[in-house]
Structures are given as C-alpha cells and as structure tokens.
Automatic annotation (TrEMBL):
Record key words, sorted: Glycoprotein, Hydrolase, Protease, Serine protease, Signal
Name the UniProt record assigns to this protein: Peptidase S8/S53 domain-containing protein
Family as reported in the entry's similarity comment: Belongs to the peptidase S8 family.
Organism: Citrus clementina (Clementine)
Residues annotated as signal peptide: 1-22
Transmembrane segments: none
Listed GO biological process terms: proteolysis
Entry superkingdom: Eukaryota
Record flagged with keyword Signal: yes
A GO molecular-function annotation: serine-type endopeptidase activity
InterPro entries: PA_domain, Peptidase_S8/S53_dom, Peptidase_S8/S53_dom_sf, Peptidase_S8_Asp-AS, Peptidase_S8_Ser-AS, Peptidase_S8_subtilisin-rel, Peptidases_S8_3, S8pro/Inhibitor_I9
Residues annotated as domain PA: 418-493
Amino acid sequence: MIAAEFLCIFIVLFTIFILGRAEVYIVTVEGEPIISYRGGDNGFEATAVESDEKIDTTSELVTSYARHLEKKHDMLLGLLFERDTYKKLYSYKHLINGFAVHITPDQAEILQRAPGVKSVERDWKVRRLTTHTPEFLGLPTGVWPTGGGFDRAGEDIVIGFVDSGIYPHHPSFGSHHTDPYGPVPKYRGKCEVDPDTKRSFCNGKIIGAQHFAEAAIAARAFNPAVDFASPLDGDGHGSHTAAIAAGNNGIPVRMHGHEFGRASGMAPRARIAVYKALYRLFGGFVADVVAAIDQAVHDGVDILSLSVGPNSPPATTKTTFLNPFDVTLLAAVKAGVFVAQAAGNGGPFPKTLVSYSPWITTVAAAIDDRRYKNHLNLGNGKILAGIGLSPATHGNRTFTLVAANDVLLDSSVMKYSASDCQRPEVLNKNLVEGNILLCGYSFNFVTGTASIKKVSETAKSLGAAGFVLAVENVSPGTKFDPVPVGIPGILITDVTKSMDLVDYYNTSTTRDWTGRVKSFKGTGTIGDGLMPILHKSAPQVALFSARGPNIKDFSFQDADLLKPDILAPGSLIWAAWSPNGTDEANFVGEGFALISGTSMAAPHIAGIAALVKQKHPYWSPAAIKSALMTTTTKLDRASRPLQAQQYSETEAMKLVTATPFDYGSGHVNPRAALDPGLIFDAGLIRLLINLFDLSCLAPIYFLTSPNLFSDRLRGLLGILVHDSRHRHSRDKKLHKPTLQLLNGPPV
Ligand SMILES: *[C@@H]1O[C@H](CO)[C@@H](O)[C@H](O)[C@H]1NC(C)=O
Ligand SMILES: *[C@@H]1O[C@H](CO)[C@@H](O)[C@H](O)[C@H]1NC(C)=O
Ligand SMILES: *[C@@H]1O[C@H](CO)[C@@H](O)[C@H](O)[C@H]1NC(C)=O
C-alpha cells in the first residue's frame, strides 16, 4: 500500500519533472510537402503544379497525400516514444513536411538521430512589431480611380493577416454599407464561430477567421480569459493592421467626441482572412505562426501581411534564411503568395532587422507628413511647446495652475504617488475644479503602469479645465507620441521647458511656513492640438525603424543581401482598434488607435500589393515586389534626398541623409508601382542566385560540411532545385533562366 502510494507520488513527480522540462520543437522530415511533391512515394501521385498554377487543395490527390504525410509523422513519433510522453501540436504538410511537438530535450536528441528526420529546432518566440496615409500616398486621386474607384480597389484579392486576430464588429470591417461581397471561389478558409455570441467571424468582408494556439498552450503562456480561444482580437494590433491594408473606405475616426478625419485601407475592397497566432503580452510562438502560414497558403490567400518577427535571430539555425519560419515563407512565395513583413523596431541601430530572406518583402517605417503640435501659454508670457492631441482650453480665459502635490486630500496617507495623477480619489476636487491640473511624467508612464489616458480621466472627473504633464527628467532616447484625449491637455517633453514651468509655478504660488499653499497665482491656457500640420520634409525614416545590414546568422555576420526592401508609412497611423485589447494603456476600450511601428508599415505594402495584383492578376510575387521596388522614390516632398531620424552624440534626435540600409529601394509610390514599365520577374531563380552568392560568402558553413548543401539546403529548398530542372518555359512573356549549377553542391 505504502509502496504503491510512493510509486504514485513518484510517477506524478516524475511526470511533472518531464512535462516541466518539455518544450516545443519544430521538426522537419524527409519527403516533399504538398507544394513540391512530384510523385514517387508509395504510389501517391504528384501534387506539385507549375509555378503559375494554384494547387487545388480540396482534390482527392492532395488530401490523400496530406493524410499520408500526417500518418508518417504520427508513426515516427509512435515508434520512438511512449504514448503520453509527447504531444504533437501540428502536422505541417503543405509548405514544409514536418510537425511541431512538445517533448523533452532528451526526446529531441533521439528525434534528431532518427532516420528520416532532417531538422529539429527548439521553438522560439516572435513579437508584434507595433488615416491619412491613403492621401499621403496619392491613392484616392492617383491609384484607386484606375482600379474602378475605392469601392473596387482590391476587389476579389484576399489578404491573409497572421496577427492578433480581429474585432469583427468594427465599421472598418463591416459589410452593411458596401456592395454585397460575392464568394471568392479560390479561397477556402474556415470561419470560426465566436464562442460568446455564437456568430461567425465572417461577414463577406472578413472571409476567413481561425486561431492557432497549440504552442502557446503547451508553453503555458495562453490565458483564455484575456487571449480568447477564438479569432477575437485581445490586443488591437491585428485589427489595426487589417484595417490599414484592407479596411473600408471613409470610416470616421471618432474618439472623445472629436473626429480625426476618415480612415481607409490601402485596398478597401480587398477581403480579410484572419489567422490569429499572436497574443497579448507574450506575443507568439513560431510553431503557431508556421501553422497559421501553412493554413493561409493552403486556403488560397493572395497576399500575406506579417507584422511579426522573431525576438532574436533563431539560435539553433546556422543561417537566418533557413529557419523553419523563413523556409515556410519561401514555400508560400513559391505557391504564388506575396509576403510583406515588418522590418523590426530595433532602430536606429545597425543590424536590427528581424526579416531576413530574399523572398520576403521587408518593410521599413517612415514618418509621413502629418505632425501634431500644441503649446502651453503661461501667465508670464512664455509659450512652451509640447505634445497634446486635445482641444484648447475655453475661449479667451486663462486658468489657474494647481500642482497635484499641492491639492492632495490627505498627504499623510500616501499609498500612491499623487503627482502622476492616476487616481482622482487622492486629490481635492474643490481645489482642482475649474483649474489646470499640473502632473509629473514619472517612470510609471514608461513601464505602462501609468497612462496619459488615466491622467485625462482623473482631470475630467475632478472637473479640471485641463491638465499639463511635465517631463522633468527623461532617459535619453525616450519617444513621446501624441495621445488623443477628451479634455485640454498637453505633455511638455522638453526638460528645460518643464523647468521653466515649475519655476513659474513656484514663484507665483505663495505658501505658509509649513509649505502649504496659501494662494495659487500661476495661470495658463492650452492651445488647440487637434489640427495636424502637414510637413514638406516627409517622408523620413522613423527613428525606431530597424536598419541594415542584413545578418546571415546568429553571430551577426553580414549577409550579402540588401534589406530592408522598401519604406512605407508606419509612424502615428490612425486605424481600427479592438475594444477588447488591454495592452496599450492609452487605447483601452477605444475603437481607434494612433500607433507607430514597422507593424503599421507592412500592411501598407500588403494593401498596395493587392492593388498591383488586382491590375496584374498573373504577376508572380517577385514581379509584384519588383514593381514596388523599382518605382520607389528616394526624394522627400521638398525634392531633397530622404532623411532618416538618428541619435546624435547626446542621444537627442537628429536628421541625417538616409541610406539604403534605412530605406532599401526607397519610399513606396503606389501610382508608379501599378505601371512600372519594366519588371524583373527574378522569381525563385534569382532568389537562389542570392542564396548561392550567400553560400559562397559563408564558406565556413558550407565548406566544413559540403554535404550540408545537398542534405540540408536541398532538403529545405528541394522544391527550388526541382523547380529549376523541371521548368519548361510556359510563360513566354518573362524570361526565366534555368540554373543547372544548383543541382550540385556549390563548393
Ligand atoms: C476673445 O477676445 C477677442 C478680443 O478681445 C474678442 O474679439 C473675441 O470675441 C473673444 N473670444 C471669445 C470666445 O470670447
Ligand atoms: C518648487 O517648490 C517646491 C516646494 O517649495 C520645492 O520642493 C521645489 O524644489 C521647487 N522647485 C523648483 C524647481 O524650484
Ligand atoms: C469585447 O468588447 C465588446 C465591446 O466592448 C464587448 O461587448 C464584448 O463583450 C467583449 N468580448 C469579450 C469576449 O470580452
């Protein structure tokens, strides 16, 4: 009895021990995925097609080969491991042949040595890389009319979003006020049903909606209460990126009773296919993202928008291009899907890109021409510039300034810091009402535990006429963005100006010997910050936009491949937001958000690519990429060379002349991209040449193990090697060289 109990405890402990150490691994095995299978395996017929055809994923041929691959994955695992010591999360069959599995490192080693296994990589994490822009890009006048107007722009093109999901009830995604959407026969994605409302996520505009969380669940990072086991956007990011690329046209951006113009996607008639694989706080896991991409391509999307990148170069793959994520994307491109990926937000420092491969269009972020400015007028005549996306204080009146620390209700019980104005209940309403409340910008704002939204709510609930948030010390490189607020409010970001304010306040405020205020005499007014100012010195490369050179491996050696590819607007972009999102403190519960990131730049390119694809339905992804890249501009609105934001020696911000490491080929020009004249349909052959050059520059990797090329590269890229041999030039319009060289090792 005792022994049995002991054994039980032992087993339980042992299981916990094993599970505790278990991690998600992405495994690729021998044998072609559906996309490149040319027959020969157990009598299964070929599933691969010529590059300009689409695979019919519903055919008996494809589904039976898919079942066959999945059975082989299960058999391999069943042969190697005891039942219940592992959990297979996904079988990847379409773009790569492999699976994601939750196992211990010891089991991973066994798997690595097993015959037929090509690679075993520990899963790694990815993160989100966080509307006026259609006019800035010349879409309404220059581009949409050629496609039949905004109500046809992007018609029947399906854009897949691998992101944090969607808020389906947003007007940017509604289908009530538009021409009815017909079916898109080529697209076969599923629509999950909302577990709460029991309604489908799809409405014609949204044409597919699925979520992928097996790896997040296995890693115990998934919390259904806030992450939602459905395509519902628990963040806001996914709704934002989908609206930038394909949101409806003319949607009024209303917040706090003010309309900030009208928003539109780049291709407002394009369809949205949602593949949720990113979650709040932790981001996502590559195993889920790969499953999402595999499904998206299987379902038949035309374009993939990826505002997601790895937290760091994949540690276990020798070259950045050959990790399972990038290889999956290569197969997606081979299947005819154009892929736009955010460059990353690690700028302005070199080698910060998180999008590596030649087959992907890597998008850097630009500041467009719209800037918001505001100012605070003090009673002593000084005018302090600041950031405040707010209405002005009322009429010609001036208002008394009261500092939060001087209007505390009971200064002896101070559980919370009062000066950052996050809690109205610690302040004396009688002293604040009708006055301008002065607050301090503490470190809590940087960490996200304090927000400008809360300051404005505090000021409003106390009946204040407005608020001022003074930055008195700042870590170098801190970036301040305007936050839309409902009452007059301004952030004084310049430390010396904040000092001017504090000095003025101190000298005009009289105190008794205990320091208590006897009378407040300082006054001020806050200007109107709602009207944007349009600048000619645009576009500029945004400070945060990741910079080249591209790296080829974990040791950060240079890759011989220019990245990023193209620059698109990505700074302070207005677009749809999910009221269910909780990560961005300033936009909790709101229907729109004004945010920045290469995350916002990538969907601009995805949407413009949809317009190009609509006009030129038979162009390959490489042709679309070429059209976009050969028609860019390297000049700003004032016809000067593009500039880039950089840090000066003192870590203040300065402007320098931008280089291709900042902007790639230059800033996107949609009108020209629709009519590029010459296109380089370099296609896969060019990609391979790039890889080949790269491999020559990486002699260590390939020389030390010449068979790696045939084993690993041919294995991973086998599709390409086959392709260059079997290609018979059906497409006479475009010259596609064949490359026999690639059938043998390059060294
Ligand atoms: C503000 O003052 C000017 C000049 O004193 C006056 O003409 C104007 O009507 C005033 N505006 C308001 C809103 O009181
Ligand atoms: C303003 O006055 C307060 C209270 O007397 C004092 O703590 C603070 O140091 C003063 N600030 C400046 C900048 O003089
Ligand atoms: C998402 O937000 C909407 C609007 O605030 C709300 O009605 C709905 O209940 C929320 N859904 C969940 C699952 O929290």
